[in-house]
Amino acid sequence: MPRRSSLPVTFVVPTLIILLILSMVPTVYAVVIALQNRELSSTAYSYVWFSNFVDLFFDRRFLNAVWVSVKWEVVTVVATMAVAIGLGVLMFEVASPRLRNIYCLLFIIPVLLPRVSAAFVWKFAYHPLYGIATYPYRLLTGGLIFDPLSKPATALFAVASVDVWQWGLFFAVIVLKLLETLPPQPIEAARLDHARRWQIHAYVTLPMLKAPLISLMFVKMIESLRSFDLIYVMTRGGPGVATETLDMYAFSQGFIESGKVSYASAMAVLMMIATVITFTMLWKRVQA
Amino acid sequence: MRLGRLIGKAVLAFAGFMAVFPLLWTALNSLKNNVDIITRVPRVVFTPTLANISYIIGRDSVMTGLYNSVIACGVAVLIGVVLGLPAAYAVARYPNRWAGDIQFFVLSLRFLPPVAVAIPLMVIWLQLGLYDTLTALIVTYSLLTISVIMWLAIPAFQAVPKEVEEAAFVDGYGAYSVFWRIALPVAARSLIGAVAFGFVLVWNEFLIALMLSSSNAKTLPIVASELSQQGMNVPWGILNASVVLLSLPPLLFLGVLSGFLNSVFRQKKT
Question: Do A135 and B89 touch (CB under 8 A)?
Fold first, then answer.
């Protein structure tokens, strides 16, 4: 490599400046809006400083949205990792190389779908009367009706199942590829010690893959923040507020119900601070 | 042990079935008349109809949405390629003390909640008079495409054998022509995967498009979601057909993206 070249500067600097502008302008502006009392219906506004944030802490719907978001994160991340590791190990154990390739292709399909498409596909499937996913229930119970999306107890899980359908299957492919990169010797050694198959994975292969699996979980935690599309199409936050996550609530405050843009922005700013701090800390730990 | 393997194979086969069946069922429903969809017992045998699909293709709103999606995503991806690939190459090949920070900055853009970006941008575009235009959407999407393409292209450039580039320098190539004539073509396969990933990401994007468009700049996902706003009264077949139309472009990249995955992990192994 030639040491003296203008290439690094001409290639990196313009891109970084554009990225900085494109990201910093909205973030700074989000904070500014959050300190005002803008509404969609009028152009007049003034600075109210922190009163939006104070209001948020007395807003029970906001506190509910925080709780729903936390539930959503935990349910989707845990279920995705469980499905991914389970299916990944299964493919590694029982599928021939040919079959593995076929499964890998099939398992990537759901994650490629636009989330709006995935949401519709399953919204139809969960329809209590005509859905294909509720058909087995109707068949077994002789025509009883089960409507997972309109029951508060099941709605969140029904929507989360779509997220796991998309990401769990995709991550199973990655877990398989990770298992395939492992050297065969430790597995052979464990086998000679008469370890059972599940013991080999629980005590040898998965601990060896600890670092990439944690990175994978990290990616899923970030992607789980983007729950809006699924929830918007499938339940609109309902029934009641059972599936109203923070971004759904911010959207409905800002645009559907009252047009309180500043109030919505205050919520978005809190989300932003929480996620940036959490993920920066996690990322530094993953890298260390 | 035999039984265990058999159960394992059955579970896998079921998972494979679950992966594609819901989508296939949707595709099948898009070929049905309403009477064949609204049945308590799912119908597999029916007289197929192309009415839903031709209705969808004939609707102006759908065609406008398709056009908007293609232009917004296409241009944003192009900007992502033009700005992202060179930057990725420089970070990969000319590491300095900021390289780690640059990579982290690019990744951290992904932490930003979409609502937090969309609300202020909506106000900004309104003030600039660019709200509900493709320009606004393209600029906003560029943030996504540049960062994602750059993030994925860095390892792709790092995987190019250094010796190849050094040999080119010895032959008298300058830094820029090494990038053009050596690094780009050698890394092309992985780079296409990275670019395809960027495209799928913005094609599937929903929240930002929803907030930044009201009528003229609606992308296909927004149009599709609006078809169902009229409740379930809209013929289901039409909705299913629109879902199929929306899902086709990302699926075209299935081969490219799975090849990309394979190449990423092959590098790790060696």
Answer: no
**Residue B29 resides in a domain:** no
Evaluate whether residue B62 is within a structural domain. yes
Q: With 0-12 CB in 10 A as exposed, 13-18 as middle and 19+ as buried, what is A133?
A: buried
ipTM associated with this complex = 0.87
Please state the CATH superfamily assignment of the domain spanning residues A35-287 in this structure.
Answer: MetI-like (1.10.3720.10)
Across the strands, what pairs with A185?
none
Please give the single-letter amino acid code of residue B102.
I
Contact (Cβ atoms closer than 8 angstroms) between residue A261 and residue A254: yes
Half-sphere exposure in the Cβ direction for A108 (13 Å, CA) = 24
Domain range for B100 is 54-269
CA distance B71 to chain A (A): 17
If one counts the domains in chain B, the total is 1
Name the pTM for this structure: 0.89
Residue B162, amino acid: K
| pLDDT tens digits along A61-74 | 999 999 999 999 99
Looking at chain A, how many residues does it have? 288
Is B172 part of a structural domain of the chain?
A: yes
Q: Which member of B18, B111, B204 has the closest CB to residue A276? A: B111
Angstrom CA distances, A60 to A63, A71, A240, A241, B143, stand at 5, 16, 13, 11, 34
Domain boundaries, given as residue ranges, for chain A: 35-287
Q: Is residue B215 part of a domain?
A: yes
* Residue showing tokens 């927004």: B222
Residue A58: how many other CB atoms lie within 10 Å:
8
